[in-house]
Amino acid sequence: MEHRPPRFGGPSTSPRMDRVEGPTTQVLQCGGVLVYQLLCGRELAADDPMARQLANYVYLVVNTHDRTAIAVDAAWDVEGLYGLASALGVTIRGAIYTHGHFDHCGGELPPFMTRGRRVSKPGARDIEVRGGRVWAGPGDGSQMTGQCQLSRQPLEVGDGDVLDCGDLVLHATGRARGGGAGKPGAASESADPRLKMFGDAMGETLTRCEAGLLITGDTVFVGSCGRTDLPGSDQEQMFASLSRLSKLDPSVLVLPGHNYSELPFNSVGAERAQNQMMRMGMSQKPSPPRLPPCVLCDNRGACGPKGLKIGRKVRIKGLTSDAGRKLNGQPGVVTGFASDKGRYAVRLISRPEVKCLQPDNVESVPSGETCDAPEPEQKEAQAPPTPREFVDAAIALIDNATSDEKVRMSRLEGPLDWGSRDPRWILLTTRLLNGGNARAAFGVALPEVISLLTQEFDPKWRTMVSEFLVSEL
Ligand SMILES: [Zn+2]
């Protein structure tokens, strides 16, 4: 799998037609944490039309200090994900699943989608086969075990739990539970990679966000929210979850489970202002259950005599009782400091249990304040191709199509107007300008490009190019 999108290189190195490149990959940095946002149908499973249609995001959350990672909703193309991780020099510890829908965790497709045939997609099972851990929210485990044919139940992650990823911990922010057996459905867990992670090894678009990153699954999408009309989902619970997440620091970035908007991500503050579903949630559930303290850590800063940060990883040491000695060396996360007792509350990572510890029995784990990975490589500025080079590359792109691709192209249809929204035009610009904008690249020479294209295409290809379908893009 090639991860770096092909760049414009003239006819001889023209990219082949087996994948359509979109905009560059988004990489988000929070201190020493790097989160790769991978769009299914683009970075992963590029050849799967269903993946393109459902537009799921898979996230790779990388601890840049020890170069380990936890994937979120690893499905559709687990092999490709491991390929990406190995290109980055990163070891995947496992994957957390926001919920049990097949588009997020893989496994068998619902029979209504396949006219009763048994079809399965890569997902949690492939993580397990590769020796990775699989985590899921309460209530999702047994469904996932059957659907994904796991050999054992996923490790359960509840509200406020943390996942161990070296000196990084990943915080889980559960759906708001309204009592009763809340079945996940569309309202799902959110994972919040709090700590700091490296450089832009892929040469993609890097966004820094020190306030934190929130991976929302199908809870919040940019400008909307997950469906609650599906079996097992619950409108009330969705409103409570949306209201709850609206309480986060407004600078926290929301990384959604699907690409349903023009923006790949958005801030909590912007969603709070513009997302009508979140606004309905806020008005209908004005006092949702409190968020776990660790998830709010950046608002609180350092606490207690040691100045430990809430939400950060610590290690237990120096306990002398029999029970205490078993805890020595265990990692936990600071959830607060009780000044009346003079003790830190430390949530264990191995199990959801909070210990009250004297400051002497808590030591900080060297971590995330500084980032030891290289700074992002500056992309070398590339001169745009000349109109002639662009047109030669377009012709080569079509001439080099495989017979399969030719069949696919011959089925495409649509008027040829060369406008900026024209799918064929988008195809040529994304394939040949690496996602760039033709108007920006060519400026006043754009009409020349268009006229060259119409002159130079062999008539048989001209027909074919005149038939690209939006769905193919
Ligand atoms: Zn989904």
What does this structure look like?
By secondary structure, the protein is α+β, with helices and mostly antiparallel strands. The chain is built from 17 helices and 25 strands. A hairpin with a 2-residue loop joins strand 10 and strand 11. Bound molecules: zinc ion. Zinc ion binds at residues 101, 103-104, 218, 257-258.
Radius of gyration: 24 Å
Major beta sheet, strand line-up: 9-8-5-4-3-2-1-13
Report how far the terminal alpha carbons are from each other.
19 Å
Beta-strand segment tally: 25
Largest sheet at a glance? 8 strands, mixed
What would the principal axes of the Cα set say about the shape? globular
Q: Give the count of helical stretches.
A: 17
The ligands bound in this entry are:
zinc ion
Helical content (DSSP H or I, runs of 4+): 25-40%
The amount of beta strand, in percent, is 15-25%
Q: Indicate the mean pLDDT.
A: 76
The poorly predicted ranges are 1-22, 176-189, 194-203, 371-381, 411-423, 466-473
Sheet/helix structural class: alpha+beta
Cofactor: Zn(2+)
Protein name: Metallo-beta-lactamase domain-containing protein
Pfam families: Lactamase_B
Region (Disordered): 1-22, 359-386
